[in-house]
## 1
Amino acid sequence: MIFRVLGKEDVSELTEKLRGGFPGSAKIYYVLKNFLRGTMEGFEVIVDAWPEWQCVILRPVNQEAVPGYFRHYYICYAKTVTSLKFFLQRPGVIDWDKPATFTGVPYDILPVIQEVSKKRGGQLPYIEPRFMYCWSKDPPEIPKIPEGVKLTTLKPEHAKRLRQDWNNVRGGKDLDNYFRKVIENFDSSALINAKGELLAYICMQFNGSMAMLHVHADHRGNGYGEIILKSMTHKLASKGEIPYGFVPSKDLLGIQKAQYFGYTWVPQGNMVWVRYIPKPKIDYSKTGSLESREKLNASHEEEETHMFINAIPLAVNDKPKTPMNNYFTTAVSSS
């Protein structure tokens, strides 16, 4: 058997088994929970064997079945690196003739993807390693909310604002729909003033991670980042969920701040996001016309500007030399 597509009953059984691997397995556990809830429409779940599985991959049934922000996505999890190396190369598991965005893969898998890309003349324009940090204690206390500020949640009408804040960090098509989807389906924390203006926010993602922590440029230095981060952590921990987020592996200040706040590094949750672009197939009988060349270039540009939704970090620090006690108050989107 090359792979097996799981039905919902089997996915439900698999999801419960993954709880035993917390917190490292949280990154796939919540994806499968959302699959069962119907918020991962157009995906299928495949495993290398059943019930004695080693590897799990969520992939689109076909690219038209999933929303634009999830096209060409492969969300991976494996008990061992070796098993995933072989599974990714089994016939029919990955369509290497089309673009692919891999999320959840351990760093040791990168040489496999690099080798495939090299053999096929493709490109890997985007590789982003991340460390997983989670909250493993009792719910934290929420800092005092300043006068004139209200702690609330994001609303669907805030989607356009999120689009503006994160366009330069994670651009791409259908981004408005993505933000509306996460706002409507997942937990969030936000601060607004008396006028209803959005000052700061943080929002959950499809993989269950806390991400997109953002403080408006005019309101940094007031501790708003810490308030919403602890608010979200408290909300999730109180419900028995695993509060966690990803920090870029080169973001030393972000790592120090996560530790300062009491978050614990989870080595089993470390991962890389990899974007694979195959070598364009050129129909030389049609490349003579200007129109054909323009279409070819346009299609190639479209693949290269594909968004990396699940690679949104816990926060983006635009000032690497910012003092540690001000890190989350200056978290903004930046290119």
## 2
Amino acid sequence: MDSISLFSGGFPYVSFYIVAVITAFCCLCALWALRLSPLIILLKVKRKESDGGYSTENSLKKKACGCNCSCGRSGEGSDSTLSCAPYPNGSVGNMHERAPVVVERQSGASMMELLVPEITTHALSYLDYPSLCRLSMTNSSMRRAANDDNAWKALYHKDFTVEQVKITPLNGWKAYYASTRAVVNVNAEFYNIIRQRLLPAMSCLWLNADYVKCIHSSGEFFTGYDAVMESWQLAFNWAEVAFQIRDVRARVLTDMAWVTMKAYVDMETGLFNVTNVYEFHNGQWYMVHHHYSIMPTAWVADHQNMFA
């Protein structure tokens, strides 16, 4: 009877202990679940970002790529902008902060600047004169490439002659190319005037000076501006003669230039060596000397098919 009364009297204490143990266990489970919640993880990340601590992220980066590279910051002098993972520093926010550095390095040099100079010159040599001028007006990098002296030298040899490969133009090859083209254009205009028989245009083409000279294909010699103009007036009254000009070669100095070429007139007259001399006055090239000389008959017989 005494034992039953003790057991029955202590039952409330046993129940209390059981309830306490269960309650403590439930609290531990709740704390463990709360620690693994996304909200707590986000708060920890924010706290570490504000404190400047990235040791955990660096260790995760090293484990993520499995290498000993710049993403783990293990080597000296490594580039912090390179990475082995999409977000190397463990957070989207920090990735956005470092992105402009990468963009700046990529945009610092153009494609033309990254090429070897010899490759750039070779690529520009395929352009013609108008295209190279338009390229120089695109941007600063293209302007530097298009103004390269070697590019204009290559273009000169392609458009005119390779005979002057060893000369060094005083103002560079670009200025020399422009002067040569201007002289060649004036020389071509001279023969257009002859074809169209335009005496006023011919009088504007020649320099009005006493020392100008003209030797026509007939061998007649004229000196002085007035005498030369009278000779062309007589020449334009002759019967129309078709002719072709080949092998044009120009040499340009500061204020003087001469052009040599071959002229094929007809089968009876044959081939001529022609020399035209120009002087530069007031921003314009004027003719001061025109000379025809007939080629030897044997040379004409060997080369007459060139102008067929």
## 3
Amino acid sequence: MALHSMRKTRGCWSFIRALHKRPEAAPAPQVAEHTQLSWILTCMVRLPRLQHLHQWKAKTTKQKQDGTVGLLTYPMLQAADVLLYKSTHVPVGEDQVQHMELVQDLARSFNKKYGEFFPVPKSILTSMKKVKSLRDPSAKMSKSDPDKLATVRITDSPEEIVQKFCKAVTDFTSEVTYDPASREGVSNMVAIHSAVTGLPVEDVIRQSAGIDTARYKLLVADAVIEKFAPIKSEIEKLKTDKDYLEKVLQVGSAKAKELAYPVCQEVKKLVGFL
């Protein structure tokens, strides 16, 4: 329900300020209860548990062991995002399963110590559990990837999307098959194609019989462009209505605050802050 609420609010606000080009136009909406609960939860987890999370190890390896405390404790903010709204089900990607296990353990630990309070939320995984990088199909697709050809963004132009898929890593076999263990690149193309069209992988393979991988990558690019088109159109439409965006942000912030405040206050009472 609220796994990305705080980050989305920040991103939306940055977008609105960019549209206005006047940061002072209105006060940035805040739901401080996210960070307050995050700190309380941080006091309930031991350091080794966070250091053993795959995301932390992977990112610090890329950063040459120069990871910050903020990166280390980021899963606690995610946990606060979920628990603050007493969420029962949370849609996540495969890479976030470990973090959700941490959320579940925190809910159980809190309930054991202070009485039944938080629901233990369940993870919801879609059939497309993880989108792989176009340039390194052994890794997930990430918006922070320094290789600009690795990630497809909703705001990319059709030309950019075609270029990225043309440059996507596959292999030297021209037939389109689905075998993630031995043909990661081509299987990634098939998985993306299946996800954007809603067709089962088997149907995608059957429809792609006789097409070589070079042509197939263009076919997948066209399917992605078609899927993104109405979303991009709506984005462009909303960008022209600044007043509406501000209203949505302010109303959403107020609703989130209305839900978050009493939960956070009750938590503070239970742990002895109030």
## 4
Amino acid sequence: MAAAAGLVPLETSIVSPLGRHSASLIFLHGSGSPLEGPFFKSIHQQCLAQGDSGPGFRKWIKQVLNKDLAFHHIKVIYPTAPPRPYTPLKGGISNVWFDRIRIALDCPEHLESINVTCQVLTDLINNEVKSGIKKNRIILGGFSMGGCMAMHLAYRFHQDVAGVFALSSFLNKFSAVYQAVQKNNGVLPELFQCHGTVDELVLYSWGEETNSMLKHLGVSTKFHTLPKYYHEIRKPELEKLQSWILTKLPEEVEENNE
């Protein structure tokens, strides 16, 4: 996908690799930051109204892990979605990756806003490639809306990335992603999914159906069921994700030229 002229670059929060940079991870936030714990239900609407940001999402991940999500050779990039009117907030401005009528499996996709964001995120990918990182050394992923955005970005426009992950995410029933995957004859990036069984915002069955559809269309998938998880992220989930990331982006051995 070619980058579009005139689009404003995304603000990012970056966790630099501890050693030589040889791979990159782009981690997309959701439409809000539901917090872990018993107060989830009462505070979710407040979190949704505030939207999210790259720095805010990085802070949440850091709180869960008690440290940054960091690697010796992988740069972790947390972009902030551009502010836009968001229909579920009655047209209020929020940092969301795309618009939608409501959060529902049978809701039509708002492809116009999705496609614009894909162009902006393509700039981010291209910047990594220009810095010397090969496309097959980049992973795209996200939480909730961010996971949906990552699947659109990878399976429709960047099918040569190393992998895709989607945490507590889903695709709409007649998603353009399914159409793009169906037309592909090559090898597609593997999908890593985690989903809580008691998620009341993005139902477990929606994530399960997304996985089943993509698997049926030829995508290699890993689906982790998280018993008693709501719409949240916990440490065990992030540890599973870290392990998967390292299988897709192993550290490269430097050649000895002596």
